[in-house]
Structures are given as C-alpha cells and as structure tokens.
Amino acid sequence: MLIFLDFDGVLHPDGCNPSSYFSQAPLLEAILRQSADFEVVISSSWRHRRPFDELVLLFSTDVRKYIVGITPDSRYVEMPVRLGLYPRQAEIEVWLRENARATDNWVAIDDRPWLFKPFFPRLIKTQPDCGMTLQTCEELLRRKGSL
After folding, report:
1. Apex CA 61: angle with CA 56 and CA 62, to 5°?
2. Which band of pLDDT confidence, cut at 50, 70 and 90, is reported for residue 80?
3. Cα–Cα distance between 84 and 95 in angstroms, integer?
4. pLDDT the model gives residue 136
5. Fewest Cβ atoms nearer than 10 Å: which of 34, 65, 90, 130?
6. What does pTM read for this prediction?
7. Tell me: the pLDDT tens digits for 27-51?
8. How far apart are CA 54 and CA 112, in angstroms?
9. Per-residue pLDDT at 83
10. Res 33: pLDDT
11. Angle 112-95-110 (CA atoms, 0-180°, nearest 5)?
12. For 65, which DSSP code?
C-alpha cells in the first residue's frame, strides 16, 4: 500500500514550535516497522523547500527505506483538468502515472481535505491541532486490509 504523506497537521500539529516537529512520527514509524507492505510518498509542502534526500533524513534510519518519493509540484507539471481545484489529489495522480503505479491500493494522510475532491474516499483526515493519533493508525491499518 502506498501512503501519500503530509507533514504539518499529520506528523506534528500544524503551526507548532519547531521543537515539536515530527512529534507524532513515531506512530507512523511503528506501523512501517510492523509491515513491509507499505511505501511512503511525501506529499507535504515541505518538498518545495527541501530535496528528497533531506526529507528522508527526517525519519528514523530503519524506516527510511519505506520512503520512495515525493509528489511533483503542481506549478511545474501538467495536472489533470478535472482536478484543477484539488491540487494535492492531482499531484498524487500525476505521481502514480509518472511512476507507472496503476494501483488502487493507496491512501493520503492529510489534514487539509479541501486539497482533495469532497468526500474523497482515499483520504485519511487528521486534525491539524494534534496530527496523527492512534485512531489514525487504526484507520490506516483498516484501509490496508480493505483495499
């Protein structure tokens, strides 16, 4: 299963002090350690400020192998017209196409549902003020079993 991963509002509370960055990452990393069935693609806006090699270093050494890429920047690639109002979803679909991943086995973990079509079924929404929780992890594992 592919996980398209946002950072702010997911791996830490949105707008938090930098000392709290990645405070919720251990929850995701625990899931990655338990199952070799996951791969992570970074969809966070952090990819606009840091190259892939630096972003991977933000994760624990043993889980870095699960980070397989970053989504393209919608400003520089041809986006699906039907998704013009939903840039995060469009960037994910472009990544899937460009990486020959014709798969239905993926989810996005994000705190900003307006970046996706309304009621998008592949979105696991987090609360921006806290980020990932045990409930988010349970939802991810449930989706893995159902997709």
Report:
1. 115
2. low
3. 15
4. 95
5. 34
6. 0.92
7. 999 999 988 789 999 999 999 999 9
8. 24
9. 59
10. 92
11. 15
12. G
